[in-house]
User: Which sequence fits this backbone?
């Protein structure tokens, strides 16, 4: 079997869904499990509705709910030429009713817990899959019966062993050559049946989890670009598709902000050694990227990505830095405060670290002040150059740095796996830095 995952832009309206239908029908001999995102920007709209309700503005929230309803009804009407089957109509009405009830509850309490947010967000994928499954005449499976997670609402951690067992029970019997099964990306449930989500963009992750659980021969990520490109095309328009990527390169790129793949996607695929392809829904005959374990690209730089805002903390302690145990003490503070550190660079009398921009700094700084002074630089971005021969290509570092010209590099870090070189720059200079570095990538290819 194969997994075919279609992102929000691929199922944005009735015309898009027809295109997806064509692709799925052509793949029927391969026993596809179709994993869908919510239509277009529905998840954003659901978040907006929930936050509006939380502020106490129920009419505002219900207005957003109505807009969501209209878009889905219109798509259904168009797909079925005005004759929406009763079963679908009933299902849609039930879903909209559930959404309204949830929004009323949030507005009444003026309280939006991550748990309530997940329940609300789950409606996007449940709606899109209902419509599409009906159109295809395919089996519809509630992903929450299979995708078991912990209770970390908003960014739940899946339980692969449980998912395997549940997939064998609920999905495998329905799969077979000649028919498709449709399910949702992004959403899951705890053992107690509470709805969870895997975090924004999580449908890719779902696809890989389902693929690993079912022993798929391929996980296809269908989206709006011809595969993984050498850089984000919105920033560097001349970015080119990459035909082959190693698992390690793809994982680094995703972790450092290449939005085309959810950062965790690669991990279940790596463990099960399942190739992941990234393809353009509207250009199925066009170029695409294959990500697999076998690939050894040997390129100096394969691609660039950037992530921000991040905050740089420069920790100095002239007394203690050279002493053994200093770093242990330093990281103990971060561990205790539950703050994860991204890049680290050490110097004679200081250590620079990057953390996410939204971490609570105050308690952290308070703890650190007991034994060090800390300088805080906010609004920075990490730029990552990823490539398998990055380290062994002489002079490459110098070329990258000189290409940056007047853009100041505040921190440099070579990833321990040696395929990632990360630079920290001011966030407002990150796009320009990417454009300049991309020229080096093109020349070094
Ligand atoms: P989907 O809705 O299909 O999940 P996303 O919007 O999440 O699609 O991801 C696709 C988008 O990722 C592309 O439209 C592109 O703008 C962006 N992107 C960022 N970096 C890259 C990259 N290196 N290669 C391809 N696309 C990228
Ligand atoms: N619909 C979810 C989101 O917009 C998940 C996804 O599309 O991958 O984040
Ligand atoms: Mg996505």
Assistant:
């Amino acid at each position: 079997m194969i997994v075919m995952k279609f992102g929000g832009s691929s199922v944005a309206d009735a015309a898009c869904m027809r295109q997806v239908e064509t692709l799925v029908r052509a793949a029927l001999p391969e026993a596809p499990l179709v994993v869908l995102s919510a239509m277009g920007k529905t998840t954003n709209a659901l978040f907006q509705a929930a936050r509006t309700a939380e502020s106490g503005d129920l009419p505002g929230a219900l207005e957003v709910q109505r807009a969501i309803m209209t878009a889905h009804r219109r798509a259904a009407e168009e797909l079925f030429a005005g004759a929406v089957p009763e079963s679908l109509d009933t299902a849609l009405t039930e879903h909209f009713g559930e959404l309204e009830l949830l929004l009323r509850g949030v507005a009444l309490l003026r309280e939006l817990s991550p748990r309530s947010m997940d329940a609300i967000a789950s409606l996007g994928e449940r709606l899109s899959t209902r419509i599409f499954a009906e159109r295809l005449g395919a089996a519809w499976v509630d992903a929450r019966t299979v995708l078991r997670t912990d209770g970390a609402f908003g960014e739940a951690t899946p339980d692969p062993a449980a998912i395997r067992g549940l997939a064998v029970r609920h999905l495998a019997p329905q799969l077979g050559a000649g028919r498709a099964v449709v399910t949702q990306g992004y959403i899951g449930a705890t053992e107690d049946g509470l709805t969870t989500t895997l975090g924004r963009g999580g449908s890719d992750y779902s696809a890989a989890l389902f693929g690993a659980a079912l022993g798929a021969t391929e996980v296809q990520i269908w989206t709006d670009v011809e595969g993984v490109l050498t850089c984000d095309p919105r920033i560097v328009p001349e970015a080119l598709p990459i035909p082959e990527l190693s698992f390690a390169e793809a994982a680094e790129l995703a972790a450092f902000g290449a939005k085309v793949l959810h950062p965790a996607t690669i991990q279940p695929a790596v463990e099960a050694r399942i190739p992941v392809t990234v393809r353009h829904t509207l250009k199925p005959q066009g170029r695409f990227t294959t990500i697999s374990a076998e690939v050894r690209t040997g390129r100096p730089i394969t691609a660039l990505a950037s992530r921000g805002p991040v905050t740089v903390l420069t920790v100095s302690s002239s007394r203690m830095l050279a002493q053994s145990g200093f770093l242990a003490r330093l990281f103990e503070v971060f561990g205790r405060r539950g703050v994860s550190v991204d890049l680290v660079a050490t110097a004679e009398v200081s250590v620079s670290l990057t953390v996410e921009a939204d971490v609570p700094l105050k308690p952290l700084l308070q703890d650190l002040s007991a034994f060090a002074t800390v300088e805080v630089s906010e609004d920075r971005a990490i730029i990552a150059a990823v490539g398998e021969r990055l380290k062994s290509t002489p002079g490459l570092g110098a070329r990258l740095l000189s290409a940056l010209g007047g853009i100041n590099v505040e921190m440099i870090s070579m990833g321990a796996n040696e395929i990632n070189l990360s630079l920290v720059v001011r966030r407002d200079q990150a796009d320009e830095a990417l454009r300049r570095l991309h020229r080096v990538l093109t020349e070094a290819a």
